[in-house]
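It is worth pausing here to work through a concrete case rather than discussing structure prediction in the abstract. The textbook approach is simple: state the sequence, then state the predicted structure, then interpret. We follow exactly that order.
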Amino acid sequence: MSYLKDFPNKEGYFGEFGGAFLPPELEPHFAEIEQAYLRLMRSADFLSELRYIRKHYQGRPTPVYYAHNLSADVGAHIYFKREDLNHSGAHKLNHCMGEALLAKHMGKKKLIAETGAGQHGVALATAAAYFGMECEIHMGEIDIAKEAPNVTRMKLLGANVVPVGFGGRSLKEAVDSAFQSYLSQADEAIFAIGSVVGPHPFPTMVRNFQSVMGIEAREQYLEMTGELPDHVAACVGGGSNALGLFAGFIDDDDVQLHGVEPLGRGTELGQHSATMTYGKPGMIHGFKCLLLSDEEGNPAPVHSIASGLDYPGVGPEHSHLKTTGRVSYHAINDDETLDAFYKISRREGIIPALESAHAIAWAMKFGRDHPGTTILVNLSGRGDKDIDYVTENFGHG
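Step two, the predicted structure:
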């Protein structure tokens, strides 16, 4: 039995989580996307074109790297899956090129999306330029200020960046705004959701497009060491980079899987984005998942130093994997994240994204307590987008 083939079910549920709760006017559009995806993912022509793009445009496979200096410092053996070397600087292009290729085959002319840290926005703008399509990116005003380099990149790539100024002015509101815009353009556009969230079929589609990371990493690690890692870890906001890496190891019972989420500034509601630690079942953006909510059940305000993790919900598959116990989830605060950001920059010559630094910080902490163990971490993105924000607010470390 293969986990990836068994989940989700036909209605898009991972156990009790997932589904598609849509306005009636969007139901036929999401059904059209699902039907096209199921058809094209069995098409040799579609898969051949996607493989060509990954190899000759994205630069895949990305390497697995043994972090020798960090390993010596910590006492555990830490490896990185180097998604920061994927074209556009993060794992996001893996599903963006897939979604854009799907849109092309469906005859769509425009790509619409939300973005938090801007990496999904940059990746989708890159895909739109590659396929000659229009691109509209919705981004909260707080994140626009924090991630200015990525805003510039999106505009240079030809995207229309729509500032979102209501509510918390962050990722949740960007999704709200993008959904609203998509309602009036669904005939000609596709809403290229940026993580393993949203109504069915997007959590499945994005996971499967991202699974290339896990498939590569498993083969690369075996070739390097002759065995599988003891632990595999990745940061979790919506959770696409984690599920993509986990996909390569989900059927290996001896490999322990770890998701790392943001504890932010503390445990009070509004000070963190630790959905897996403090969330309860709820509804957001057309699907059911674990959710940080207020007393009235509405999505709560959240915080993370990493804009890409700043979301009150989480992918429905992560919610299921926590419930079943297949994946362990941990929370890392802003200070620990910054420490890892500076340490990897100085000790390995790699400036990681603040999102990725959460997973690295957990690996450092866990590795010190478990010397000799082997840990494969998804270095899901590079930190170019974060350097202005970090140095202006926290100095050079």
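Step three, interpretation. The chain has 16 helices and 14 strands. The mean pLDDT is 97.
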